[in-house]
Amino acid sequence: MPQRPLVILPDSRLRLTSDPVVRVDAKVRSLVEDMFETMYEAPGIGLAAIQVGVPERVITIDVSREGEDKKPLLLINPEVVAESDERSVYQEGCLSIPEYYEDVERPARVTVRYMDIDGETREIEADGLLATCVQHEIDHLNGVLFIDHISKLKRDRVVKKFTKLARERERDER
C-alpha cells in the first residue's frame, strides 16, 4: 500500500467538486488502501480523495485515540441526509493546511448516507468528533475547506501564508 503525496493549499485541486463513484472496483479499493495508509502515516483522523489528487467522492476516517484499537471508516459518495439544530465547536485542522488550527462551528449531530466497500448503501448517525470529521471531509468533496467557516480576515491570512510558502518551495526546487 503506497502512501500518496498530499495536496497542500493553495493547490487549486482542493477547490474541485469531486465526482461520484459509479462502482466500487479494484481501482477504488486500491485508492482506499492508499488513503488509509496516507492518513495514518500523516497522521490524521480523516482524508478525502481529493487531498491525494483524486477527485472522487471517497473519504476515510478513524477518530480512535492513540492506544485504542483502530476504527477505520470508509464512506463512498457520502451525503448528509439530516443534521441537528444543536451546534458544536471543535478546533479543526487539515492535512492539506498543515499546522493551522481554528475553532469551527458545525451541527452537533448528522446522519450520513454512503456506500461501503461492497457497494452497499448504508447510513450512520454521528455526533461529537466523528460528526465534525465527517462534515469536514464531505466539505472537501464539495471544494470547501474548513477555513471557509472562519472569518474572511483569518482565511485571507492563511491563504496568503500558504501561497508564499508554495512560492518559496518552487524557488527552492529550481
From TrEMBL:
Fe cation binds at residues 94, 136, 140. Its cofactor is Fe(2+). CDD domains: Pep_deformylase (cd00487). Gene3D superfamilies: Peptide deformylase (3.90.45.10). InterPro entries: Peptide_deformylase (IPR023635), Peptide_deformylase_sf (IPR036821). The keyword Iron applies. The active site is at 137. Pfam families: Pep_deformylase. Binds 1 Fe(2+) ion. One of its GO terms (molecular function) is peptide deformylase activity. Keywords: Hydrolase, Iron, Metal-binding, Protein biosynthesis. Belongs to the polypeptide deformylase family. HAMAP family: Pep_deformylase (MF_00163). Removes the formyl group from the N-terminal Met of newly synthesized proteins. Requires at least a dipeptide for an efficient rate of reaction. N-terminal L-methionine is a prerequisite for activity but the enzyme has broad specificity at other positions. NCBIfam families: pept_deformyl, PRK00150.1-3. This is Peptide deformylase. It comes from Ancylobacter crimeensis.
